[in-house]
Write a structure and sequence with these properties.
By secondary structure, this protein is mostly beta strands. It is built from no helices and 11 strands.
């Protein structure tokens, strides 16, 4: 099982980034996928999840309306479109596979992450 995040970088406040999570070893159509972030000195924050069963999505309040999670079964990838970025969005972003097909919050494997820095 391997998850590999990409797409991070430096962006100005108000800008956008699209993160991608490339998955190998299992199908994203079979397990829920979660994006979470970790900033220095802060607890892990789960941002969004997409269910494998029906593609339903959920978002934490801090990113609702700004971030969009999506899944490409053919490419076996999950993306996170991030708009209206704020300095407080600065963190290392990770994708993780849930232990179930629905968003249970019980995460199994995750990738090494991609750095997102929002600064002018």
């Amino acid at each position: 099982v391997q998850l590999r995040e990409s797409g991070g970088g430096l962006v100005q406040p108000g800008g956008s980034l699209r993160l991608s999570c490339a998955v190998s070893g299992f199908s994203v159509a079979s397990y829920a996928i979660t994006w979470f972030r970790q900033a220095p000195g802060k607890e892990r924050e789960e941002l969004s999840c997409i269910s494998a069963k029906d593609g339903s999505t959920s978002y934490t309040d801090s990113v609702k309306g700004r971030f969009t999670i999506s899944r490409d079964n053919a490419q076996n990838t999950v993306s996170l479109q991030m708009n209206s970025l704020k300095p407080e969005d600065t963190a290392v972003y990770h994708c993780a596979v849930d232990r179930y097909f629905y968003c249970s919050g019980s995460l199994g494997y995750w990738g090494q992450g991609t750095q997102v820095t929002v600064s002018s």
